[in-house]
Specification:
Organism: Galleria mellonella
Strand content: 5-15%
Structural class: alpha/beta
Number of strands: 8
InterPro entries: Acyl_transf_3_dom, Nose-resist-to-fluoxetine_N, O2_lipid_transport_reg
Number of domains: 2
Protein name: Nose resistant to fluoxetine protein 6-like
Shape: globular
Keywords: Membrane, Signal, Transmembrane, Transmembrane helix
Distance between the termini: 77 Å
């Protein structure tokens, strides 16, 4: 019945129609064909079709109404969105009286802070056979509606939280604060309701034709967007993607055929095969990817750390995206859960990114300190940068191309605007992403917004030779001075910056922003300066591992116990400190400044001790768990999974046809889906793009014979114990 109510209240409306997208981009960059939406509009045809539907075809009218708005499920739980019936609307096609009547799906937003009155449509339109409902409310505010005031307040907090998450993840957000807040009404809260209308009509024209010149009801609404079948035009980037992926497919077929013929049919030695001809072979690349050969000096435990950290990232994004790109039946329940103690394992997930920063710094030192000298570092600096850039480029470029083209076409749904926005941003801002400057050049409209991490990682890698110059000097004292100078400078600069700016200390919080509060996302979260200290902590840990490489380190049991206790206390403090700052009444800027300045470096030190203890025999069952072979494949796929998983979550959520009911059990099941699909797609991209390109890069640039499909970071097992070092 509610959809009829919506038809009435929208009926004789003063309408404001927004553009379909908030980004202003050229038509050939849009994911949807905006010209199509304008070309189909025909006021004369609209009037004729509506007149016919109302007076001559009750069944067709029922189809339009059934596919249109209904009471938002979970209204008292904070859900103000109804998605209608997307496919049912677009499937309406009927030819009558020389008219082709087709359905068009539109989303309408109706602000709640306004008044309206009812009219009797049956009498005014002379449609006595249609039963129209009476309006249940006369004014949408907290004093007169049947919704409790606490629900209104919860809605405001939820909208605020959603806007903050959207900002962090590079999605268009809205300012939900208003000067009307104290009036008891709902500032900028609105119903978002799907309506199904004839193809030649706009929403405004539809209801003008329904009511003629009636003007008793005054209600503002906004036509947010409309959708039609086949409204995703083929653009240049689609053809480029099709050609490139077709060429890759042909190369894979030919290379695999050559490889199988050489080894299986002719039974020749694999070493005699041409490496270039085999570079795209699925047969060889799969075998290389799933085969692990232990090597001396390998850091075994880091595969487990990387895999677990990756799963933590994905499950965090799964939960967060349910608040951003999906329609939730009970958002207020989700809000209450996020503010609770039991959500800490999700709300602290952003700290795991600092695990990757720490490991990146560790590996740069650990893998170069033994084989580099100052002169060799300076002489080969261009190759140092080029090799890093090219090793990251294939998967990143493939992901950008997928998002700019195929991901937009693979499926569809009423929530597809989030995917479309990412497509627009990749078509416009693809080049800052491939140059690793998008965290500064286009921070609010990033293509692949989660790859801000990759930008910072590459920028820190670019700066790392300044420290490596001292590390590879051959003198330990010089190396230690350079390493600690780098850490102290980065930590001091970040601390001073944090105290001056006064950022909040949590990426997700339900408290209201203060007036003049700096932007946390662009100012802190994706800022290289503020995220650099864990990287320099990792460089120090990497040097410690280097100087004790192949040596048996003996540490007294009491010291090992104290170090483990300290690690547990500090890491727990980092995690549990998030609980008070999540609360709406949190207001301690000094504590925020200290947390922003030191909690991430503290976490990096804890992970550093974990790695060191596992490498040198003090990890016990933790080392056993982290060194299991099952982590190897995840460790090798972690880079591709990180790059691809976020966009795949958008695609999955974009296909949802109805609101989801938030609870932890459902979200965990959804994580399993997101993780599995990400794993499969990452496996395919690694086999078809990453592994072949790594072979080609090594062939043309030279270097070791080791394939990139082997662990991205060396595994470390202590095979050589000829030296023993006592640690006091």
């Amino acid at each position: 019945m509610f959809f009829k109510f919506i038809l009435i209240i929208i009926a004789s409306i003063v309408v404001t129609v927004n553009g379909y997208l908030q980004m202003v981009v050229p038509d050939n960059k849009n994911a949807f064909d905006l010209n199509l939406y304008q070309e189909v509009l025909d006021a004369e045809q609209c009037a004729a079709q509506i007149k016919y539907i109302l007076r001559n075809n009750t069944m067709l009218l029922s189809q339009f109404l059934n596919a249109g708005p209904k009471t938002p499920r979970g209204l008292l739980k904070g859900n103000l969105v109804d998605l209608g019936s997307y496919y049912e609307c677009l499937e309406i096609q009927e030819k009558v009286q020389n008219m082709d009547i087709e359905g068009k799906y539109c989303m309408v937003s109706i602000p709640l802070n306004q008044e309206f009155s009812t009219i009797n449509l049956s009498e005014e339109l002379d449609l006595e056979d249609i039963s129209w409902p009476e309006l249940p409310w006369t004014e949408l505010n907290s004093k007169k509606t049947r919704i409790k005031k606490s629900t209104f307040e919860g809605l405001l907090k939820y909208k605020m939280l959603k806007a903050k998450i959207q900002e962090i993840f590079g999605l268009t957000s809205e300012n939900i604060l208003s000067n009307e807040k104290s009036s008891g009404q709902l500032p900028n809260l609105k119903f978002n309701l799907a309506v199904c209308i004839p193809k030649p009509c706009s929403v405004n024209e539809t209801f003008k034709n329904l009511l003629g010149g009636l003007s008793e009801v005054k209600l503002d609404f906004t036509e947010e967007y409309c959708r039609l079948p086949n409204d995703k035009p083929w653009t240049a980037v689609d053809y480029v993607a099709l050609v490139i992926f077709t060429i890759i497919g042909v190369l894979i077929f030919l290379s695999t055929f050559y490889d199988i013929r050489h080894e299986v049919i002719l039974k020749k030695d694999a070493k005699t095969a041409n490496k270039l001809y085999r570079s795209f072979s699925i047969y060889t690349n799969t075998r290389r990817l799933v085969t692990y050969t232990p090597s001396p000096g390998a850091l075994e435990c880091m595969d487990g750390i990387r895999a677990i950290a990756m799963m933590w990232v994905i499950i965090g994004h799964t939960f967060a995206n349910q608040m951003v790109s999906a329609t939730v039946w009970n958002p207020l329940d989700g809000l209450n859960w996020i503010s609770s103690f039991w959500s800490l394992w999700i709300t602290t997930a952003p700290i795991t990114v600092d695990t990757f920063f720490m490991m990146a710094g560790l590996l740069i030192v650990y893998t170069t300190a033994e084989k580099m000298t100052r002169s060799k570092l300076i002489k080969n600096l261009h190759l140092f940068y080029l090799n890093r850039y090219l090793r990251l480029f294939p998967v990143l470029a493939a992901s950008v191309l997928l998002q700019a083209s195929l991901f937009n076409r693979v499926t569809d749904g009423p929530n597809w605007n989030t995917v479309a926005q990412q497509t627009h941003q990749c078509r416009v801002y693809w080049w800052p992403t491939l140059l690793y400057i998008h965290n500064y050049y286009s921070p609010r409209f990033m293509c692949l917004p989660h790859t801000w991490y990759l930008a910072i990682d590459f920028q820190l890698f670019f700066l790392s030779p300044i420290i490596l110059f001292w590390v590879v000097s051959g003198r330990k004292r010089t190396a230690w001075v350079g390493l600690f100078a780098g850490l102290l400078i980065s930590l001091s600069a970040a601390t001073i910056f944090n105290f001056i700016m006064g950022f909040r200390s949590a990426s997700i919080t339900v408290r209201e922003p203060k007036e003049g509060e700096p932007n946390y996302d662009t100012g802190f979260y994706i800022n290289t300066l503020t995220r650099a200290p864990p990287f320099f902590v990792g460089m120090i840990i990497g040097y410690v591992l280097h100087i004790f490489r192949g040596k048996k380190v003996v540490i007294p049991k009491i010291q090992v116990t104290l170090l483990w206790l300290l690690t547990i206390v500090l890491s727990s403090a980092v995690i549990f400190s998030n609980y008070p700052i999540l609360q709406a009444d949190w207001d301690n800027q000094l504590a925020d400044n200290f947390l922003n300045s030191f909690q991430r470096s503290t976490w990096a030190m804890c992970i550093g001790w974990l790695i060191f203890s596992c490498v040198h025999g003090y990890g016990g069952p933790i080392n056993w768990l982290l060194s299991l072979r099952m982590w190897k494949i995840l460790g090798r796929l972690s880079y591709a999974m990180y790059i691809l998983h976020y966009q795949l979550i958008f695609v999955i959520n974009g296909t949802l046809l109805s609101p989801i009911y938030f609870n932890v059990e459902f979200s965990i099941r959804q994580f399993i889906v997101d993780f599995t699909i990400s794993l499969l797609v990452a496996f395919a991209v690694t086999l078809c793009v990453d592994s072949p390109c790594s072979v080609l890069i090594k062939y043309f640039l030279g270097g070791s014979k080791r394939s990139k499909s082997s662990p991205a970071i060396p595994s470390l097992s202590i095979e050589n114990k000829k030296d023993t070092v006592e640690v006091p």
